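Quick check before the chapter quiz. The format below is the same one you will see on the exam, so make sure you can read both the input and the output lines.
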Amino acid sequence: MTRSTGTSTWLDLSITDTDAAKAFYGGLFGWEFEDLGESFNHYHLIRSGDALVGGLMNVSGMTCPAGDPLPPEWSVYLAVDDADARTAKATEAGGTVIVPPDAISDAGRMSVVLDATGAPIGLWQAGTLEGYEFTGTPGSPVWFELMTHWYDEAAAFYTEVFDAQLV
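Here is the expected output.
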């Protein structure tokens, strides 16, 4: 792992209309989409030129643990050294596991949790896929923030789980 724990490392775009999303983001940022095929449920890698930006997945028909349809949304994943251990730490710090740690082929291991304030966050332990590539050009990921009314709870959670250094 070359990225330090807690560093933003991956973006997932969950959508319900693949063609519309590809047309919108392709037109806005010039992104290109690589369909990984049936074995990956037609997950798409998103690229800006040669640089990897993240992934796109159609969630039509998929549901949350409570049974509600998965909404279209962007998800951010933070780098971790050990997805299993950090997911356990998230639970100990007041979080809730939504997607337990799982291998994504040899690319890495991931999980999704709700932090102590109820905000979703992904954990990514790199295998062959480190994460997105920051280029500083238009269409490259640059800024992520959590807006919450529960700053103290969020700060304690991210400090405990991801070794955050708050300033």
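If your answer matched, good. The beta strands are 8-15, 32-35, 44-48, 51-58, 73-79, 96-104, 108-114, 120-126.
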